[in-house]
Here is the input.
Amino acid sequence: MSIIQNLLPAPAWKLYQDTPDAVLLDVRDPLEFLLVGHPPGAINIPWKYAPDWKPNPEFLQQVSAVAPHLSTPLFLLCRSGQRSMDAARLLNQQGYENLTNIEEGFEGPLDTNKRRNTLGGWRFYHLPWEQT
Here is the structure.
């Protein structure tokens, strides 16, 4: 197994842009992806589905459809970095060699008021994003 790289959003975005053939996987639920927003070019392949957070039984098949080669550089993003790390671990076990987990995710950790986007995350750093 290879090492899973962990990067904060800004350096991850830069490396993604500088890496030919890289794929940015947003592993959040489709509603999060559409309504909360996502980085441009991100491909939504859910790790789990809300509201009961059941695992996506087709996750590996869906990833292999967009990244058929185990050497494809994959960047994984979720809300806070936990689901994406879990997904990266599974992909690592399946032989994917070039995995980067985006720490803090799209919305970052909860602050003392139990709100996101105030302490870290993709949007906190003013990186490009869009809503569908």
